[in-house]
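Practice problem: predict the structure.
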Amino acid sequence: MARIAFILLTHKDPQGVVDQARRLTASGDYVAIHYDRRAPADEYRLIRAALAGHPNVVFAPRRFRCGWGEWSLVAATLSALRQAERSFPEATHFYMLSGDCMPIKSAEYARDFLDRDDCDYIEAFDFFDSDWIKTGIKAERLVYRHWFNERRRKRLFHASMAAQKWLRLDRAIPQGLQVMIGSQWWCLRRQTVESVLALIAARRDLTAFFRTTWIPDETFFQTLVAHLVPKTDIRRRSPTCLMFTDYGMPVTFYNDHYDLLIRQDYLFARKISSDAQDLRARLGALWQARGVEFSITNEAPRLFRFLTARGREGRRFAPRFWDDRGAGRNQAICLIVAKKWHVAKRLTAAIRALTDIPAVDYIFNERDAGLPDLGGIASTVLKRERHRRALVRLLLDDYGSTRLALCLDPSALALIADFLADRAETRILFVDTPFSPDYLHGHMRRMGLAGPATPDAQIRQLLPVVESDLADEADRLRDLAAARLTVLSPLAPDAANADALARFLDVSPQVAHDLARTPHLFND
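Answer:
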């Protein structure tokens, strides 16, 4: 039966490292830990103390300061690998993991998986002929010597390479090697690990060469394994599920990915978010489970590419609430535009009472505006306005209606213009009411232009200015929405108002007449 020695490369979250080591060894397997020397010494001491005396856990005898793209990553792996090979003679396989990896199968399944096929799992594609490298330098990784880290010392990295190119200091690949490339996350049999360690002990030129290549963790083991092991004994794939974006960044998995992950044809997955505590707990329990059957679909990479492509076109699968697609072409948004909010609210109350048309109040101005319970997703006025089209679409879906009436202030011209630009039919009812001096005075106080102690003389000076401003709002509304505007006015006869309401709401003449005769509709 397969017994796995996990080579665990970590650099953060000491308690997570301890938990991972205990979880992996609880099934009878082994762990060799390399903890980055760049990490605080207290963190490493915590790990050593927590796992002291554990018979199935060892530590790399030498810790390295690891840097992305550097030989230090390979050196750290070799340090832990040698220790594991010496310490665990019963281990049949050696499996590379990081602190961000979690099992997506049970230990029982993993052992059966490795026992079924006597082979090594490692990506190993021809360095020059394959398209494994998507962007950046390629041959330059090997033929020039790289002493500087490209991320931390970018200028020196490129200046050094340019100087070597100008001086023609390119070098040959070690004799007899076909350089291969692939993921650093592999699982190798004991005999393969022993052969690799023996080869690099016998041929110091190999480590000397790879020590100054760029990103050697993608070429060192891949090349040596392919050099030593027959092609028929290599499965050119990683046993760890990992996906990359078009920009070469790893895809991170979260709490809602559990069902997706366990369906993939892999034993572990990387990267699991450190915030996905529910996912980590469920996967940790899964590793200890027995008798679990897994239905393998292996759709994750194709699904990710599909959804990513749709996202770029604004057509993501399973759109979230705040995707601002707006209402549909066969739906109507009926905007009641009124400066006197109490008048508009009386009208929406009558619409709700006399028709089956859902009607809400000033949802972009007031938190409590007659909205149904939407589970808190429209809890703030700011969020509603930012995603106004999406809110309207959700309301239509919630009410199960093709029409929706809502109230807007005439000052909200940008909102009105946005609704007019939507693909849904937008109708506008302007409630054109006169403004008495008392109303204008109250309006000034609501706007903060006047207070209880403001002198009457100042109020009289401001009244015509505010009245003119309100008239200007009405004129701009008429200019913006002339083709879709109907008017409701206390100065018009009931028949004219009923006709306006019938066209605006698409209701019968009798219902429109009853709405126009709403008691005290225009009263202040």
